[in-house]
Amino acid sequence: MSGHPWERPPAAMLPEAVAALAALKEGRAGDAEATATLAIVTAHQVPELLDAGLLRPGDFGDAALEAMAVVIDAAAAWDEDEESLEEFVAGLEPDDLRNVVAAARPWAAAVYADMVPEAAKRAR
Hints:
Layout: H1 10-25, H2 32-51, H3 62-79, H4 85-90, H5 94-115, H6 118-123
Helix pairs in contact: 1-2, 1-5, 2-3, 2-5, 3-5
């Protein structure tokens, strides 16, 4: 899976991830496929940024945890697949796509609010 956005130095991906989280939480990520694609990529970036100390641990409520589980499950399902992310998202069942899109906003809002340092928010 070489060349993926989360396979760069964490400091280089932080601005992109913060912008993606903001777009997802504000519902500005585009159509359903674009939203799911952005959520899956960002779900890969968040743990890398957390491990690098660029994001802080979050304390999520039940709704955010449920949303996170949906997004993370989609990201993990793609990891197990042999196709490109675009092909994976295009091949999602309509209900699965709707679920990822519905979960993306509350998940991104929780990550942005609880995990993104204020300095990174101001820098976007």
